[in-house]
Amino acid sequence: MDIKLWLVGLLKLIAAFGIIAICYLHFWFWNAVSYFDEVDSESSIYDFIVVGAGSAGAVVSSRLSENGSYSVLLVEAGGYPAQLVNIPLISGILPSTPFSWNYQTEPQQFGHAASVGRRSIWPRGKVIGGSSILNFLLYVRGNKHDYDHWAALGNEGWSYEDVLPFFKKSEKNTGRFIDEEFHGKEGCVTVEDRAWKSNLPQAFIDAGLELGFHHIDINGHNQTGFTTPQLTTQHGARCSTYSAFLKNTHKRPNLKVITFAQVQKVLIDESKQAYGIQYKRRGELITTIAAKEIILSAGAIETPKILMLSGVGPREHLEQHKIKVQVDRRVGENLQDHIYVPLTPLVHNDSSASLVNPLNLMAWWDYIVHGAGQYSSNGVDGMAFKSSKNCEPDWPDIQLHFLSYSVASDHGICVRHLMGLEEKAWKEIFEPLSHEDTASIFATLVRPKSRGWIRLHSADPSHQPIIDPQYYSNPHDIQVMLEALRFAQETLNTTAMKKHLRLHNAQNPYCHNFPVDSEAYLECLIQHMSATLHHPVGSCKMGPSTDPDAVVDPQLRVYGIKGLRVADASVMPVIPNGNINAPVIMIGEKAAHMILEYHRSGSDQKPMQLDSLTFAQKIGDEL
Predict the structure, then answer these.
(1) Is 516 annotated as a binding residue?
(2) Taking the model in full, what pTM does it have?
Protein backbone atom coordinates (compact mmCIF):
# COMPACT_ATOMS: atom_id res chain seq x y z
CA MET A 1 0.00 0.00 0.00
CA ASP A 2 1.21 3.52 -0.85
CA ILE A 3 2.31 5.10 2.47
CA LYS A 4 1.08 8.53 1.35
CA LEU A 5 -2.42 7.20 0.63
CA TRP A 6 -2.43 5.44 3.98
CA LEU A 7 -1.40 8.65 5.74
CA VAL A 8 -4.01 10.71 3.91
CA GLY A 9 -6.64 8.16 4.91
CA LEU A 10 -5.55 8.31 8.54
CA LEU A 11 -5.74 12.08 8.53
CA LYS A 12 -9.24 11.93 7.02
CA LEU A 13 -10.31 9.67 9.88
CA ILE A 14 -8.81 12.00 12.48
CA ALA A 15 -10.36 15.06 10.83
CA ALA A 16 -13.85 13.51 10.60
CA PHE A 17 -13.86 12.36 14.22
CA GLY A 18 -12.42 15.72 15.26
CA ILE A 19 -15.21 17.64 13.51
CA ILE A 20 -17.87 15.46 15.15
CA ALA A 21 -16.21 15.87 18.55
CA ILE A 22 -16.04 19.66 18.19
CA CYS A 23 -19.72 19.79 17.23
CA TYR A 24 -20.63 17.78 20.31
CA LEU A 25 -18.47 20.01 22.52
CA HIS A 26 -20.15 23.06 21.03
CA PHE A 27 -23.55 21.50 21.63
CA TRP A 28 -22.80 20.70 25.25
CA PHE A 29 -20.89 23.80 26.33
CA TRP A 30 -21.45 26.76 24.02
CA ASN A 31 -25.20 26.11 23.82
CA ALA A 32 -25.36 25.80 27.60
CA VAL A 33 -25.53 29.60 27.68
CA SER A 34 -28.80 29.63 25.77
CA TYR A 35 -30.07 26.45 27.42
CA PHE A 36 -29.96 28.05 30.84
CA ASP A 37 -31.43 31.36 29.73
CA GLU A 38 -34.44 32.22 31.81
CA VAL A 39 -37.72 32.40 29.89
CA ASP A 40 -39.36 35.72 30.72
CA SER A 41 -42.74 34.70 32.14
CA GLU A 42 -43.90 38.34 32.01
CA SER A 43 -43.60 38.24 28.22
CA SER A 44 -45.64 35.11 27.68
CA ILE A 45 -47.99 36.74 25.21
CA TYR A 46 -46.84 37.51 21.68
CA ASP A 47 -48.57 38.60 18.52
CA PHE A 48 -47.09 35.68 16.57
CA ILE A 49 -45.55 32.39 17.65
CA VAL A 50 -43.41 30.56 15.09
CA VAL A 51 -42.61 26.93 15.87
CA GLY A 52 -39.35 25.78 14.28
CA ALA A 53 -36.35 27.88 13.20
CA GLY A 54 -35.47 25.96 10.05
CA SER A 55 -35.39 26.82 6.37
CA ALA A 56 -38.90 28.33 6.50
CA GLY A 57 -39.33 29.25 10.18
CA ALA A 58 -36.23 31.44 10.24
CA VAL A 59 -37.59 33.34 7.24
CA VAL A 60 -41.11 33.73 8.66
CA SER A 61 -39.96 34.96 12.07
CA SER A 62 -37.42 37.35 10.57
CA ARG A 63 -39.87 38.88 8.09
CA LEU A 64 -42.68 39.23 10.66
CA SER A 65 -40.35 40.91 13.15
CA GLU A 66 -39.23 43.45 10.52
CA ASN A 67 -42.51 45.16 11.45
CA GLY A 68 -41.58 46.66 14.80
CA SER A 69 -45.19 46.86 15.93
CA TYR A 70 -45.50 43.07 16.14
CA SER A 71 -43.95 40.87 18.84
CA VAL A 72 -42.70 37.50 17.61
CA LEU A 73 -41.67 34.38 19.53
CA LEU A 74 -39.55 31.79 17.72
CA VAL A 75 -39.41 28.39 19.44
CA GLU A 76 -36.75 25.86 18.39
CA ALA A 77 -36.15 22.32 19.68
CA GLY A 78 -32.39 22.55 19.06
CA GLY A 79 -29.68 25.08 19.80
CA TYR A 80 -27.31 27.28 17.82
CA PRO A 81 -24.98 25.82 15.15
CA ALA A 82 -21.21 25.60 15.50
CA GLN A 83 -19.00 27.66 13.19
CA LEU A 84 -17.63 24.46 11.68
CA VAL A 85 -20.92 23.74 9.91
CA ASN A 86 -20.12 26.59 7.52
CA ILE A 87 -17.37 24.60 5.76
CA PRO A 88 -19.13 23.13 2.70
CA LEU A 89 -16.83 20.13 2.38
CA ILE A 90 -17.92 18.61 5.71
CA SER A 91 -21.63 18.49 4.77
CA GLY A 92 -21.63 14.69 4.73
CA ILE A 93 -20.44 14.61 8.35
CA LEU A 94 -23.05 16.97 9.82
CA PRO A 95 -25.96 14.46 10.07
CA SER A 96 -23.75 12.53 12.53
CA THR A 97 -23.65 15.52 14.89
CA PRO A 98 -26.21 16.50 17.56
CA PHE A 99 -27.72 19.04 15.17
CA SER A 100 -29.96 16.34 13.64
CA TRP A 101 -33.15 14.54 14.67
CA ASN A 102 -31.84 11.34 13.01
CA TYR A 103 -35.15 9.71 12.19
CA GLN A 104 -35.50 6.20 10.76
CA THR A 105 -38.24 4.95 8.49
CA GLU A 106 -40.14 1.71 8.71
CA PRO A 107 -38.61 -1.24 6.77
CA GLN A 108 -39.22 -0.75 3.05
CA GLN A 109 -40.91 -3.52 1.09
CA PHE A 110 -39.70 -2.57 -2.39
CA GLY A 111 -36.28 -1.07 -1.75
CA HIS A 112 -33.36 -0.57 0.65
CA ALA A 113 -32.54 -4.30 0.67
CA ALA A 114 -28.84 -3.46 1.26
CA SER A 115 -29.67 -1.13 4.16
CA VAL A 116 -29.68 -2.14 7.81
CA GLY A 117 -33.17 -3.47 8.53
CA ARG A 118 -34.27 -2.19 5.11
CA ARG A 119 -34.71 1.19 6.78
CA SER A 120 -33.87 4.65 5.44
CA ILE A 121 -32.03 7.17 7.62
CA TRP A 122 -33.69 10.61 7.65
CA PRO A 123 -31.55 13.30 9.31
CA ARG A 124 -33.42 16.59 9.71
CA GLY A 125 -32.10 19.76 11.29
CA LYS A 126 -32.61 20.14 15.03
CA VAL A 127 -30.85 23.49 15.23
CA ILE A 128 -31.35 27.18 14.49
CA GLY A 129 -31.30 27.12 10.68
CA GLY A 130 -32.82 23.63 10.53
CA SER A 131 -31.88 21.45 7.60
CA SER A 132 -30.20 24.41 5.87
CA ILE A 133 -27.42 23.71 8.39
CA LEU A 134 -27.11 20.04 7.34
CA ASN A 135 -27.82 20.09 3.62
CA PHE A 136 -25.44 20.05 0.65
CA LEU A 137 -26.05 23.74 -0.12
CA LEU A 138 -27.49 23.18 -3.62
CA TYR A 139 -29.62 26.03 -4.93
CA VAL A 140 -32.31 24.39 -7.05
CA ARG A 141 -35.80 25.87 -7.35
CA GLY A 142 -37.63 23.16 -9.22
CA ASN A 143 -39.44 23.50 -12.53
CA LYS A 144 -41.88 26.25 -13.50
CA HIS A 145 -44.44 23.55 -14.35
CA ASP A 146 -44.27 22.27 -10.74
CA TYR A 147 -45.82 25.47 -9.46
CA ASP A 148 -48.26 25.83 -12.33
CA HIS A 149 -49.37 22.30 -11.39
CA TRP A 150 -49.88 23.40 -7.77
CA ALA A 151 -52.10 26.21 -9.02
CA ALA A 152 -54.00 23.85 -11.36
CA LEU A 153 -54.81 21.67 -8.33
CA GLY A 154 -56.77 24.61 -6.91
CA ASN A 155 -54.00 26.45 -5.05
CA GLU A 156 -54.64 29.98 -6.22
CA GLY A 157 -51.59 32.21 -5.89
CA TRP A 158 -49.02 29.43 -6.25
CA SER A 159 -48.33 29.43 -9.99
CA TYR A 160 -44.77 29.98 -11.18
CA GLU A 161 -45.59 33.60 -12.01
CA ASP A 162 -46.89 34.01 -8.43
CA VAL A 163 -43.95 32.40 -6.62
CA LEU A 164 -41.06 33.71 -8.74
CA PRO A 165 -41.03 37.11 -6.97
CA PHE A 166 -40.58 35.31 -3.63
CA PHE A 167 -37.68 33.23 -4.96
CA LYS A 168 -36.07 36.45 -6.15
CA LYS A 169 -36.85 38.31 -2.91
CA SER A 170 -34.71 35.98 -0.80
CA GLU A 171 -31.89 35.60 -3.34
CA LYS A 172 -28.63 37.51 -3.70
CA ASN A 173 -27.13 35.80 -6.73
CA THR A 174 -23.54 36.72 -7.58
CA GLY A 175 -23.14 34.14 -10.34
CA ARG A 176 -21.94 34.79 -13.87
CA PHE A 177 -23.72 32.06 -15.83
CA ILE A 178 -27.36 32.82 -15.00
CA ASP A 179 -30.53 34.02 -16.75
CA GLU A 180 -30.62 37.46 -15.14
CA GLU A 181 -34.38 37.97 -15.41
CA PHE A 182 -35.06 34.95 -13.17
CA HIS A 183 -32.75 35.90 -10.29
CA GLY A 184 -32.61 38.33 -7.40
CA LYS A 185 -29.61 40.43 -6.44
CA GLU A 186 -30.65 42.07 -3.17
CA GLY A 187 -31.92 39.20 -0.99
CA CYS A 188 -30.65 37.70 2.25
CA VAL A 189 -29.50 34.31 0.90
CA THR A 190 -26.24 34.57 -1.02
CA VAL A 191 -26.04 32.21 -4.00
CA GLU A 192 -22.63 31.75 -5.62
CA ASP A 193 -20.87 29.91 -8.38
CA ARG A 194 -18.53 27.18 -7.12
CA ALA A 195 -15.19 28.59 -6.02
CA TRP A 196 -13.42 25.22 -6.38
CA LYS A 197 -12.20 24.59 -9.90
CA SER A 198 -11.14 21.14 -11.09
CA ASN A 199 -11.33 19.28 -14.37
CA LEU A 200 -14.37 17.19 -13.35
CA PRO A 201 -17.15 19.83 -13.59
CA GLN A 202 -16.07 20.74 -17.11
CA ALA A 203 -15.86 17.07 -18.04
CA PHE A 204 -19.46 16.64 -16.90
CA ILE A 205 -20.61 19.66 -18.93
CA ASP A 206 -18.71 18.33 -21.96
CA ALA A 207 -20.43 14.96 -21.48
CA GLY A 208 -23.79 16.69 -21.69
CA LEU A 209 -22.80 18.51 -24.87
CA GLU A 210 -21.60 15.20 -26.30
CA LEU A 211 -25.04 13.71 -25.59
CA GLY A 212 -26.80 16.61 -27.31
CA PHE A 213 -27.81 18.65 -24.24
CA HIS A 214 -27.12 22.32 -23.53
CA HIS A 215 -25.17 23.93 -20.70
CA ILE A 216 -27.93 25.82 -18.86
CA ASP A 217 -29.00 27.74 -15.78
CA ILE A 218 -31.36 25.15 -14.27
CA ASN A 219 -33.14 27.94 -12.35
CA GLY A 220 -33.69 29.95 -15.50
CA HIS A 221 -35.84 29.65 -18.59
CA ASN A 222 -35.32 25.91 -19.20
CA GLN A 223 -34.48 23.12 -16.75
CA THR A 224 -33.48 20.38 -19.22
CA GLY A 225 -29.71 20.18 -19.64
CA PHE A 226 -26.39 20.01 -17.80
CA THR A 227 -24.90 22.47 -15.33
CA THR A 228 -22.45 23.07 -12.53
CA PRO A 229 -24.83 23.80 -9.64
CA GLN A 230 -24.76 27.01 -7.66
CA LEU A 231 -24.42 26.90 -3.87
CA THR A 232 -25.95 28.82 -0.99
CA THR A 233 -22.58 30.12 0.16
CA GLN A 234 -21.09 33.51 0.91
CA HIS A 235 -17.38 33.80 0.15
CA GLY A 236 -17.16 30.01 0.23
CA ALA A 237 -18.95 29.58 3.61
CA ARG A 238 -22.43 28.07 4.13
CA CYS A 239 -25.22 30.61 3.94
CA SER A 240 -27.95 28.96 6.04
CA THR A 241 -31.25 30.58 6.95
CA TYR A 242 -29.72 31.18 10.38
CA SER A 243 -26.88 33.27 8.96
CA ALA A 244 -29.10 34.87 6.30
CA PHE A 245 -32.19 35.74 8.35
CA LEU A 246 -31.53 35.43 12.10
CA LYS A 247 -27.88 35.96 12.94
CA ASN A 248 -28.13 39.75 12.75
CA THR A 249 -31.62 40.14 14.26
CA HIS A 250 -30.55 39.87 17.91
CA LYS A 251 -30.95 43.63 18.33
CA ARG A 252 -34.66 43.49 17.49
CA PRO A 253 -36.49 43.87 20.81
CA ASN A 254 -39.68 42.45 19.30
CA LEU A 255 -38.13 39.06 18.37
CA LYS A 256 -37.58 36.48 21.10
CA VAL A 257 -35.81 33.20 20.27
CA ILE A 258 -36.11 30.27 22.68
CA THR A 259 -33.87 27.26 22.09
CA PHE A 260 -34.03 23.68 23.41
CA ALA A 261 -37.80 24.01 23.65
CA GLN A 262 -39.76 21.09 22.23
CA VAL A 263 -43.36 21.97 21.47
CA GLN A 264 -45.82 19.46 22.92
CA LYS A 265 -48.99 20.75 21.29
CA VAL A 266 -50.94 23.71 20.03
CA LEU A 267 -53.62 24.91 22.44
CA ILE A 268 -57.10 25.05 20.89
CA ASP A 269 -60.23 26.25 22.66
CA GLU A 270 -63.85 25.14 22.27
CA SER A 271 -64.45 27.59 19.43
CA LYS A 272 -61.62 25.93 17.43
CA GLN A 273 -59.34 28.92 18.01
CA ALA A 274 -55.62 28.22 18.33
CA TYR A 275 -54.50 30.52 21.10
CA GLY A 276 -51.13 29.28 22.27
CA ILE A 277 -48.57 26.51 22.54
CA GLN A 278 -47.24 24.30 25.25
CA TYR A 279 -43.53 23.45 25.13
CA LYS A 280 -41.10 21.60 27.33
CA ARG A 281 -37.82 23.16 28.37
CA ARG A 282 -35.41 21.90 31.04
CA GLY A 283 -38.12 19.46 32.14
CA GLU A 284 -40.68 22.23 32.69
CA LEU A 285 -43.93 22.59 30.74
CA ILE A 286 -44.44 26.21 29.69
CA THR A 287 -47.51 27.79 28.13
CA THR A 288 -47.28 30.81 25.82
CA ILE A 289 -50.14 32.69 24.19
CA ALA A 290 -50.42 34.06 20.65
CA ALA A 291 -52.61 37.16 20.27
CA LYS A 292 -52.82 36.86 16.49
CA GLU A 293 -51.47 33.63 14.95
CA ILE A 294 -49.39 30.51 15.44
CA ILE A 295 -47.26 29.38 12.50
CA LEU A 296 -45.97 25.80 12.46
CA SER A 297 -42.66 25.58 10.59
CA ALA A 298 -41.31 22.44 12.23
CA GLY A 299 -40.83 20.53 8.97
CA ALA A 300 -42.47 17.67 7.12
CA ILE A 301 -42.07 15.29 10.08
CA GLU A 302 -42.47 17.37 13.24
CA THR A 303 -45.28 19.61 11.96
CA PRO A 304 -47.75 16.73 11.34
CA LYS A 305 -46.67 15.20 14.64
CA ILE A 306 -47.46 18.43 16.51
CA LEU A 307 -50.79 18.80 14.70
CA MET A 308 -51.84 15.25 15.61
CA LEU A 309 -50.77 15.72 19.23
CA SER A 310 -52.98 18.85 19.19
CA GLY A 311 -56.01 16.93 17.95
CA VAL A 312 -55.79 17.78 14.24
CA GLY A 313 -55.49 14.60 12.22
CA PRO A 314 -57.20 11.36 11.16
CA ARG A 315 -59.98 10.70 13.67
CA GLU A 316 -59.45 6.96 14.00
CA HIS A 317 -55.71 7.36 14.56
CA LEU A 318 -56.12 10.08 17.18
CA GLU A 319 -58.79 8.16 19.04
CA GLN A 320 -56.51 5.14 19.05
CA HIS A 321 -54.07 7.25 21.11
CA LYS A 322 -56.85 8.81 23.22
CA ILE A 323 -56.25 12.29 21.84
CA LYS A 324 -59.26 14.62 21.73
CA VAL A 325 -60.18 15.19 18.08
CA GLN A 326 -60.44 18.87 17.20
CA VAL A 327 -60.55 18.46 13.42
CA ASP A 328 -60.62 15.28 11.34
CA ARG A 329 -58.10 15.90 8.52
CA ARG A 330 -55.65 13.67 6.67
CA VAL A 331 -52.56 14.95 8.44
CA GLY A 332 -49.48 12.81 7.80
CA GLU A 333 -50.67 11.50 4.42
CA ASN A 334 -49.26 12.45 0.98
CA LEU A 335 -45.63 12.00 2.16
CA GLN A 336 -43.15 12.24 -0.74
CA ASP A 337 -39.38 12.11 -1.06
CA HIS A 338 -36.65 12.09 -3.69
CA ILE A 339 -34.81 8.79 -4.00
CA TYR A 340 -31.68 7.86 -5.93
CA VAL A 341 -29.55 4.90 -6.98
CA PRO A 342 -25.79 5.57 -7.08
CA LEU A 343 -23.69 4.55 -10.06
CA THR A 344 -20.64 3.95 -7.91
CA PRO A 345 -17.86 3.54 -7.05
CA LEU A 346 -16.22 5.38 -9.92
CA VAL A 347 -12.43 5.45 -9.74
CA HIS A 348 -10.41 8.46 -10.85
CA ASN A 349 -7.89 7.75 -13.57
CA ASP A 350 -5.45 10.16 -11.95
CA SER A 351 -5.13 11.48 -8.40
CA SER A 352 -5.09 15.14 -9.46
CA ALA A 353 -8.89 15.10 -9.33
CA SER A 354 -8.92 14.18 -5.63
CA LEU A 355 -11.49 16.22 -3.76
CA VAL A 356 -9.61 16.55 -0.50
CA ASN A 357 -6.19 15.85 0.91
CA PRO A 358 -5.71 16.92 4.54
CA LEU A 359 -1.96 17.17 3.87
CA ASN A 360 -2.54 19.98 1.38
CA LEU A 361 -1.89 23.02 3.56
CA MET A 362 -2.28 25.34 0.58
CA ALA A 363 -5.90 24.17 0.26
CA TRP A 364 -6.53 25.20 3.87
CA TRP A 365 -4.84 28.55 3.26
CA ASP A 366 -6.88 29.10 0.10
CA TYR A 367 -10.12 28.47 1.99
CA ILE A 368 -9.35 30.43 5.15
CA VAL A 369 -7.95 33.48 3.34
CA HIS A 370 -9.89 33.51 0.07
CA GLY A 371 -12.99 31.37 0.73
CA ALA A 372 -12.00 29.23 -2.24
CA GLY A 373 -10.38 25.90 -3.04
CA GLN A 374 -11.33 22.35 -2.13
CA TYR A 375 -12.92 23.17 1.22
CA SER A 376 -15.41 25.56 -0.38
CA SER A 377 -16.83 22.64 -2.37
CA ASN A 378 -19.75 20.47 -1.34
CA GLY A 379 -18.47 17.70 -3.60
CA VAL A 380 -21.34 17.97 -6.11
CA ASP A 381 -19.52 18.77 -9.35
CA GLY A 382 -22.42 18.54 -11.78
CA MET A 383 -26.18 18.25 -12.18
CA ALA A 384 -28.41 17.35 -15.10
CA PHE A 385 -32.13 17.05 -15.84
CA LYS A 386 -33.91 15.16 -18.61
CA SER A 387 -37.35 13.74 -19.30
CA SER A 388 -38.12 10.04 -19.44
CA LYS A 389 -39.71 8.71 -22.61
CA ASN A 390 -43.31 9.30 -21.48
CA CYS A 391 -42.69 12.68 -19.88
CA GLU A 392 -43.18 16.27 -21.10
CA PRO A 393 -40.03 17.63 -22.82
CA ASP A 394 -39.34 20.50 -20.39
CA TRP A 395 -40.83 19.02 -17.25
CA PRO A 396 -38.10 16.46 -16.58
CA ASP A 397 -38.57 13.63 -14.11
CA ILE A 398 -34.93 12.47 -14.02
CA GLN A 399 -32.04 14.24 -12.27
CA LEU A 400 -28.35 13.36 -12.10
CA HIS A 401 -26.01 14.43 -9.31
CA PHE A 402 -22.32 14.02 -10.16
CA LEU A 403 -20.19 13.81 -7.03
CA SER A 404 -16.42 13.75 -6.75
CA TYR A 405 -16.62 11.35 -3.81
CA SER A 406 -18.36 8.12 -2.81
CA VAL A 407 -19.30 6.15 0.28
CA ALA A 408 -15.68 4.98 0.40
CA SER A 409 -14.24 8.48 0.57
CA ASP A 410 -14.58 8.95 4.34
CA HIS A 411 -13.51 5.40 5.24
CA GLY A 412 -16.99 4.42 6.34
CA ILE A 413 -17.26 7.00 9.10
CA CYS A 414 -20.35 8.98 8.12
CA VAL A 415 -21.64 8.67 4.54
CA ARG A 416 -22.03 4.90 4.85
CA HIS A 417 -24.27 5.37 7.88
CA LEU A 418 -26.09 8.25 6.21
CA MET A 419 -27.07 5.78 3.47
CA GLY A 420 -27.79 3.14 6.14
CA LEU A 421 -25.69 0.50 4.36
CA GLU A 422 -25.33 -2.89 6.00
CA GLU A 423 -21.93 -4.46 6.66
CA LYS A 424 -21.91 -6.63 3.54
CA ALA A 425 -22.45 -3.66 1.23
CA TRP A 426 -19.64 -1.74 2.88
CA LYS A 427 -17.19 -4.64 2.99
CA GLU A 428 -17.71 -5.91 -0.56
CA ILE A 429 -18.34 -2.72 -2.53
CA PHE A 430 -16.67 0.23 -0.83
CA GLU A 431 -14.10 -0.72 1.81
CA PRO A 432 -11.57 -2.08 -0.74
CA LEU A 433 -11.51 1.40 -2.30
CA SER A 434 -11.33 3.45 0.88
CA HIS A 435 -7.75 4.53 0.03
CA GLU A 436 -8.61 5.40 -3.58
CA ASP A 437 -10.02 8.57 -5.12
CA THR A 438 -13.61 7.66 -5.96
CA ALA A 439 -16.68 9.41 -7.35
CA SER A 440 -20.40 8.77 -7.94
CA ILE A 441 -23.30 9.60 -10.21
CA PHE A 442 -26.68 9.59 -8.49
CA ALA A 443 -29.58 8.61 -10.76
CA THR A 444 -32.46 10.45 -9.11
CA LEU A 445 -36.25 10.19 -9.39
CA VAL A 446 -37.61 13.72 -8.95
CA ARG A 447 -41.34 13.24 -9.59
CA PRO A 448 -42.25 10.05 -7.74
CA LYS A 449 -45.81 8.77 -7.80
CA SER A 450 -45.38 6.72 -4.61
CA ARG A 451 -46.92 8.22 -1.48
CA GLY A 452 -46.18 7.42 2.14
CA TRP A 453 -47.39 8.50 5.56
CA ILE A 454 -46.44 9.65 9.06
CA ARG A 455 -48.20 8.43 12.22
CA LEU A 456 -47.81 8.99 15.93
CA HIS A 457 -45.95 6.29 17.79
CA SER A 458 -47.83 7.29 20.92
CA ALA A 459 -49.39 10.34 22.57
CA ASP A 460 -46.03 11.01 24.24
CA PRO A 461 -44.44 14.04 22.46
CA SER A 462 -40.94 12.74 23.23
CA HIS A 463 -41.46 9.71 20.97
CA GLN A 464 -40.41 10.00 17.35
CA PRO A 465 -43.24 9.41 14.88
CA ILE A 466 -43.62 6.37 12.64
CA ILE A 467 -42.43 7.19 9.11
CA ASP A 468 -43.18 5.07 6.06
CA PRO A 469 -42.37 6.69 2.69
CA GLN A 470 -43.55 3.60 0.78
CA TYR A 471 -40.71 3.90 -1.73
CA TYR A 472 -41.51 2.25 -5.11
CA SER A 473 -45.03 1.31 -4.01
CA ASN A 474 -46.09 2.71 -7.38
CA PRO A 475 -44.42 0.61 -10.15
CA HIS A 476 -44.13 3.71 -12.33
CA ASP A 477 -41.23 4.88 -10.16
CA ILE A 478 -39.17 1.76 -10.89
CA GLN A 479 -39.60 2.25 -14.64
CA VAL A 480 -38.45 5.86 -14.48
CA MET A 481 -35.52 4.90 -12.24
CA LEU A 482 -34.46 2.34 -14.85
CA GLU A 483 -34.29 5.15 -17.40
CA ALA A 484 -32.41 7.31 -14.91
CA LEU A 485 -29.76 4.60 -14.46
CA ARG A 486 -29.42 4.24 -18.23
CA PHE A 487 -28.94 8.00 -18.46
CA ALA A 488 -26.23 7.86 -15.78
CA GLN A 489 -24.47 5.08 -17.69
CA GLU A 490 -24.66 7.02 -20.95
CA THR A 491 -23.13 10.04 -19.24
CA LEU A 492 -20.30 8.00 -17.75
CA ASN A 493 -19.58 6.34 -21.10
CA THR A 494 -19.02 9.60 -22.97
CA THR A 495 -15.51 10.35 -24.19
CA ALA A 496 -15.40 13.40 -21.92
CA MET A 497 -16.05 11.39 -18.76
CA LYS A 498 -14.01 8.31 -19.65
CA LYS A 499 -10.89 10.48 -19.71
CA HIS A 500 -11.23 10.87 -15.96
CA LEU A 501 -13.34 8.05 -14.48
CA ARG A 502 -14.12 4.36 -14.78
CA LEU A 503 -16.67 2.17 -13.02
CA HIS A 504 -14.94 -0.16 -10.57
CA ASN A 505 -16.21 -3.75 -10.40
CA ALA A 506 -19.29 -3.33 -12.56
CA GLN A 507 -20.84 -6.49 -11.04
CA ASN A 508 -22.65 -5.55 -7.85
CA PRO A 509 -22.36 -8.43 -5.33
CA TYR A 510 -26.09 -8.38 -4.59
CA CYS A 511 -26.94 -8.80 -8.27
CA HIS A 512 -24.36 -11.34 -9.50
CA ASN A 513 -27.10 -13.69 -10.75
CA PHE A 514 -28.05 -11.28 -13.54
CA PRO A 515 -26.13 -10.19 -16.65
CA VAL A 516 -24.53 -6.79 -16.06
CA ASP A 517 -26.61 -3.95 -17.54
CA SER A 518 -29.64 -6.16 -18.18
CA GLU A 519 -32.99 -4.80 -17.02
CA ALA A 520 -33.14 -7.48 -14.32
CA TYR A 521 -29.69 -6.39 -13.10
CA LEU A 522 -30.70 -2.72 -12.92
CA GLU A 523 -33.93 -3.60 -11.11
CA CYS A 524 -31.82 -5.51 -8.61
CA LEU A 525 -29.67 -2.41 -8.11
CA ILE A 526 -32.80 -0.35 -7.53
CA GLN A 527 -34.09 -2.83 -4.97
CA HIS A 528 -30.82 -2.96 -3.04
CA MET A 529 -28.92 0.32 -3.43
CA SER A 530 -31.62 3.02 -3.35
CA ALA A 531 -31.19 5.82 -0.84
CA THR A 532 -32.91 9.07 0.05
CA LEU A 533 -31.83 12.60 -0.87
CA HIS A 534 -33.51 13.71 2.39
CA HIS A 535 -36.29 15.76 0.79
CA PRO A 536 -39.47 14.78 2.71
CA VAL A 537 -42.48 16.95 1.81
CA GLY A 538 -46.25 16.91 1.53
CA SER A 539 -47.43 15.58 4.89
CA CYS A 540 -49.79 18.56 5.49
CA LYS A 541 -51.01 18.98 1.95
CA MET A 542 -52.11 22.38 0.67
CA GLY A 543 -55.31 22.33 -1.35
CA PRO A 544 -58.70 23.95 -1.94
CA SER A 545 -61.67 23.30 0.33
CA THR A 546 -62.97 20.78 -2.21
CA ASP A 547 -59.90 18.57 -1.71
CA PRO A 548 -60.67 16.03 1.05
CA ASP A 549 -56.93 15.32 1.47
CA ALA A 550 -55.96 18.95 2.07
CA VAL A 551 -54.81 20.02 5.54
CA VAL A 552 -54.18 23.71 4.78
CA ASP A 553 -55.79 26.12 2.33
CA PRO A 554 -53.83 28.17 -0.25
CA GLN A 555 -53.30 30.82 2.43
CA LEU A 556 -51.63 28.05 4.51
CA ARG A 557 -54.37 28.20 7.15
CA VAL A 558 -55.21 24.88 8.81
CA TYR A 559 -58.73 23.83 7.88
CA GLY A 560 -61.14 23.97 10.79
CA ILE A 561 -58.81 25.85 13.16
CA LYS A 562 -58.63 29.64 13.41
CA GLY A 563 -55.32 31.39 13.99
CA LEU A 564 -53.14 28.47 12.90
CA ARG A 565 -51.01 28.18 9.75
CA VAL A 566 -48.33 25.86 8.43
CA ALA A 567 -45.32 27.19 6.52
CA ASP A 568 -42.75 24.54 5.63
CA ALA A 569 -42.13 21.62 3.24
CA SER A 570 -45.13 19.73 4.59
CA VAL A 571 -47.59 21.96 2.68
CA MET A 572 -46.27 21.04 -0.78
CA PRO A 573 -49.05 19.19 -2.61
CA VAL A 574 -46.51 17.66 -5.02
CA ILE A 575 -42.74 17.53 -4.58
CA PRO A 576 -40.86 19.92 -6.91
CA ASN A 577 -38.22 18.91 -9.46
CA GLY A 578 -35.02 19.30 -7.52
CA ASN A 579 -33.44 19.85 -4.13
CA ILE A 580 -35.97 21.47 -1.83
CA ASN A 581 -34.15 24.08 0.29
CA ALA A 582 -34.81 26.97 -2.10
CA PRO A 583 -38.54 26.12 -2.45
CA VAL A 584 -38.92 25.91 1.33
CA ILE A 585 -37.31 29.34 1.73
CA MET A 586 -39.74 30.62 -0.90
CA ILE A 587 -42.66 29.19 1.10
CA GLY A 588 -41.37 31.05 4.16
CA GLU A 589 -41.17 34.31 2.21
CA LYS A 590 -44.66 33.92 0.74
CA ALA A 591 -46.18 32.85 4.07
CA ALA A 592 -44.79 35.90 5.86
CA HIS A 593 -46.07 38.15 3.07
CA MET A 594 -49.58 36.64 3.26
CA ILE A 595 -49.67 36.93 7.06
CA LEU A 596 -48.59 40.57 7.04
CA GLU A 597 -51.05 41.43 4.26
CA TYR A 598 -53.85 39.69 6.14
CA HIS A 599 -53.28 41.67 9.32
CA ARG A 600 -52.73 44.87 7.37
CA SER A 601 -56.03 44.47 5.53
CA GLY A 602 -58.33 45.09 8.50
CA SER A 603 -60.16 41.80 7.95
CA ASP A 604 -63.06 41.25 10.32
CA GLN A 605 -62.14 37.58 10.47
CA LYS A 606 -58.75 38.05 12.10
CA PRO A 607 -57.81 35.80 15.01
CA MET A 608 -58.63 37.02 18.48
CA GLN A 609 -56.91 40.05 19.94
CA LEU A 610 -56.18 39.10 23.55
CA ASP A 611 -56.43 41.61 26.32
CA SER A 612 -54.78 41.01 29.69
CA LEU A 613 -57.95 39.52 31.24
CA THR A 614 -58.41 37.02 28.39
CA PHE A 615 -54.73 36.15 28.62
CA ALA A 616 -55.01 35.46 32.34
CA GLN A 617 -58.05 33.27 31.72
CA LYS A 618 -56.24 31.26 29.03
CA ILE A 619 -53.20 30.71 31.24
CA GLY A 620 -55.49 29.72 34.07
CA ASP A 621 -57.25 27.18 31.87
CA GLU A 622 -53.93 25.50 31.10
CA LEU A 623 -52.72 25.54 34.68
Answers:
(1) no
(2) 0.93
